[in-house]
TrEMBL record:
This is Uncharacterized protein. Residues 11-22 have a biased composition (Low complexity). It comes from the Eukaryota. One of its GO terms (molecular function) is sterol binding. One of its GO terms (cellular component) is cytosol. The lineage of its organism: Eukaryota, Sar, Stramenopiles, Oomycota, Saprolegniomycetes. Residues 1-22 are annotated as: Disordered. Residues 1-10 have a biased composition (Pro residues).
Amino acid sequence: MSTAPPPAPLTPLTVTTTTPQPSGTIKAAWTEAQVKDRMFWFKGFKDNKKGGVIFDDKDVLKKQQGVVKDIMLQLGAQLLSGKLAVRLSLPIRLFEPRSLLERIPDAWAYAPTLLAKAAHATEALDRLQHVMAFVVAGLHFCVGQSKPFNPILGETYQSTFPDGTSVYLEHTGTVKVQFANGSEVQYAMPKFKMHGVVLGERMFEFTGDCHFHDVSSDLRGTLDMDGNSSFLGRSHHDDITGTIVAPATKVHSCATLSETSDAALYRRAPSHL
């Protein structure tokens, strides 16, 4: 009679988690993360020689084709049935799987660096400059071509950036940056224009002015997204010029910014602004 040897004891399963180590410093690691973000967000875009960027992601564009036809069919059906043509719904293929409230923090990716510098600024001018740089640096995150869902009434959102910065969102009215020392900077985002929604190349470009107001010091800043454009056209595309002026009693230029690049300016790192 033979007996089989006892089974070998089971070896415990070991899972090893490797945490990527920052290259050099936290600042360097954060910069690398921002570069990767820019590469991700600009997938499917290319520079436009006349300014702005061109969206040429064939897969996304194909999904969005025929939207006008779908809307016209809905409109015709509602009119024929005697209903008001005010409840048209967009095809689901146009949407990304998140709401507008979730998408807004995309433009705040530089908050942990630039707003931190603004918070530690001892002069109002320095503080306003960093807030303006924070806003313009995040514009390249705002060019996505998928529509977010409209937020529901009372919706809130909270998240955390890789460095631990907390984000809490709810609709409260005027866009403003408030600091612990009581300072406050209010600002309005620039307008944008988009061509080729139905026919031709899909082009996206920021235009107009972006206004800033440091309430405590009454410093006012303006970023001109059209740069040095005139009726003759721009000497360079993607020019942004900026000016900060003192209160009305002492109107003079405190600081100016003028940037020109062959690449879209809203893709540049904050150190260039």
